[in-house]
Write a structure and sequence with these properties.
The chain contains 6 helices and 9 strands. With about 220 residues, it is α/β, with parallel strands linked by helices. The strands form 2 sheets. A 7-stranded parallel beta sheet has the order 3-2-1-4-5-6-9, with helices on both faces. The chain has a two-stranded parallel sheet with strand order 7-8. The protein is globular and about 45 Å long. It starts with a strand and ends with a helix.
Length: about 220
């Protein structure tokens, strides 16, 4: 019997992270799942361990960040975090610190949810930040680094995002028109992304890999 794995999930309360948490808890390949959250999620499960921390206090628990596979679904928005310096600390510094601490503790695989168009040379703040986050995590030298670049995420959020809800409706019409090289811009179900994250983590694929819409679909 294969040895069961352990996982750490950052960003467990977001659209992808909350669904990924259910995937990990239901997956028999994982014996233990740790989430790093700002407050207790209220979820109780025999495999679940909760650590309370955020981007300011992560260093305080770095010795507890021990797992085989690390999933990072961290992300804020300009509406929530209008201060760009704070935005950068949450979306760049926090994931990079999480990657560094977990690698120091023996993690072999890091799976990051980024964004379509991420590029450290982009003139767009958001895409540049996401690109720099990818770059700096990959530079840490994990045996396995998997970067997911979804476009608009489809699903029901706990918070109300009016424009995003409208975009989801529009993309149901637009998606079939985005073919070939444009397919990476298709809206994608958060459920698809969470399932793909879990499956890819257990695949054993070595090296650095990037996943867009078509790549994500293959794993669902």
């Amino acid at each position: 019997m294969a040895t069961r794995k352990s996982a750490i999930l950052f960003g467990a309360t977001g659209l992808i992270g909350s669904q990924l948490l259910r995937e990990l808890l239901d997956c028999s390949a994982y014996a233990a799942v740790t989430v790093v959250v700002r407050r207790d999620t209220g979820i109780r499960h025999p495999k679940l361990n909760q650590l309370v921390a955020d981007h300011r206090s992560l260093a305080d628990i770095k010795g507890q960040l021990v797992a085989d596979h690390v999933f990072c679904c961290v992300g804020t928005t300009r509406k929530k975090t209008p201060d760009l310096n704070e935005y950068y600390r949450i979306d760049h510094d926090y994931p990079v610190a999480a990657a560094q601490y977990t690698k120091d503790n023996g993690a072999t695989a890091f799976l990051l949810v980024s964004a379509v168009g991420a590029n450290p040379a982009s003139a767009n703040f958001y895409l540049r930040m996401k690109g720099e986050t990818e770059r700096d995590i990959i530079r840490l030298g994990f045996e396995r680094a998997h970067v997911f670049r979804p476009s608009l995420l489809m699903g029901n959020r706990s918070e109300n995002r009016g424009l995003e809800s409208l975009a989801q409706v529009l993309f149901k019409v637009i998606n079939p028109l985005l073919i070939n090289r444009l397919s990476k811009y298709r809206a994608v179900s958060a459920t698809w992304v969470s399932k793909a994250l879990c499956h890819v983590a257990l695949s054993g694929d070595q090296g650095v890999h990037t996943y867009h819409w078509a790549d994500i679909k293959k794993w669902v």
